[in-house]
Amino acid sequence: MNNPYIYVLIFLCFYACQQKRANFKKEDTNVYIPLPKVLHPKNNLSSPEKIHLGKLLFYDPILSGNKDIACATCHHPNYAYAENIDLSIGTNATGLGSKRKFKKPNSIPLVKRNAHTILNTAYNGINIKGTYNPEKAPMFWDNRAKSLEEQALMPITTLEEMRGQTIDENIILDTVIHRLKNIPEYRFLFQKAFPNNPVITTSNLSKAIACFERTLSSNNSRFDNYLKGETNAISETEKEGFRLFKKAKCNQCHSGPMFSDYKIHTLGLPDNQKLNISDDGFKKNYGFRTPTLRNLRHTGPYMHNGTLKTLLQVLEFYEDISTGKPQNPLVAPSKTDPLAKEIRLKVKDMSFIISFFNTLNNEDIDNETPKQVPSGLTVGGAIYN
Questions:
Q1: How many domains does the chain have?
Q2: Do residues 71 and 209 make contact, with C-beta atoms less than 8 angstroms apart?
Q3: Between 287 and which of 28, 165, 264, 366 could a Cys-Cys bridge form, CB atoms 3.0 to 4.6 Å apart?
């Protein structure tokens, strides 16, 4: 080993390996695959009976404190299981989407964040290779819940969403379970859905809703078909938009089959002025999860607080970040995520990128609402003014 050329050779081999590894990492986020088959947790395998029960529960306002709001109220199929409003309006209100208004008098605050679409939440946490664990799937803008089962119960217990002020947080779930047990049809449906444990419990309630939500996948977009080999599934303009999307480095965060890395990033978006407080996000660092880019046509307004009304405004916002223009005075420029600063968007490219976004829309989803729910209440809650 006294030969100096040996050391040079070792160094060159090490450097080449490091470069190959670095290049591989860069190439990873440029590779996209179609959405795979939906996976289910081992303790909550799918069945037609669970799906049927979960769908009825999803649309039944019996789950809310005042029996006036259902899961579907803020995640309605008319809006791709989201809503066309910046901040959700929960209990003590009527109407659907942008027509929803609080009743008077009212002391219920707005929900402080924009409603995520339920479409494709079955895939939350999926990585660039198409693998994921449904038992640990991150949920909400701050990733505070893991799995659809855990997420399903949280809106029920939240004051401004479904609980309201008439029932204490500590007893709302027990109250809901008691209501369900008093409805013969629900007793029958839970027995069919859970034959090995035919009891109405919070666990079975969450499992049924989650099982239904996992059926809401839109994995047949034109872009999915393009990835499967149908080269004419998207236009040349849309292909150019995809290329520019990657060139601008948007893919560093919007990666994988769901176009999300499911990580928290601090961007410094201005606060929604409808709120009385500043939403400081994950661990009070103004960080929020990367949202999916699928079905954007139907899920605006955008970002965690719905302040950006159009996709063009979203791209312009990222352009401002990259040029160092201050956005939220409460977020120091030094706190902005370095990946966001690397984005290189040009105005002339934005229309192409937006055209590419349109290839991720999918109209082939379950838009059928139940004609009635076992409680006899209004399907979807108080959605009619």
A1: 2
A2: yes
A3: 264
CATH of the domain at 207: 1.10.760.10
User: Do residues 117 and 180 both lie within one domain?
Assistant: yes
Tell me which residue range forms the domain holding 96. Answer: 48-213
Report the candidate in 337, 338, 341 with the shortest Cα–Cα distance to residue 265.
337
Counted residue by residue, the chain has a size of 385
Write out the DSSP string of 165-228: SSS-TTTHHHHHHHHHHT-HHHHHHHHHH-TTS----HHHHHHHHHHHHTT------HHHHHHT
What is the DSSP secondary structure assignment for residue 281, as one 8-state letter?
B
Quick one: 261 and 198 in the same domain?
no
The verdict on residue 115 lying in a domain is: yes
Pairwise CA distance, residues 306 & 287, whole Å = 15
Is residue 379, in this structure, part of any structural domain at all? no
Query: Are the CB atoms for 136 and 146 separated by under 8 Å?
Result: yes
Residues 6+ apart with CB under 8 A from 115: 74, 75, 82, 83, 85, 88
Owner of token pair 């405004």:
313
Same domain, 269 and 334: yes
The closest alpha carbon to 193, from 182, 177, 176, 209, belongs to 209
pLDDT of the chain along its 385 residues, tens only?
Answer: 455 555 444 444 544 444 443 443 444 568 899 999 999 999 999 999 999 999 999 999 999 999 999 999 999 999 999 999 999 999 999 999 999 999 999 999 999 999 999 999 999 999 999 999 999 999 999 999 999 999 999 999 999 999 999 999 999 999 999 999 999 999 999 999 999 999 999 999 999 999 999 999 988 999 999 999 999 999 999 999 999 999 999 999 999 999 999 999 999 999 999 999 999 999 999 999 999 999 999 899 999 999 999 999 999 999 999 888 879 999 999 999 999 999 999 999 999 999 999 999 997 888 999 999 999 999 999 999 7
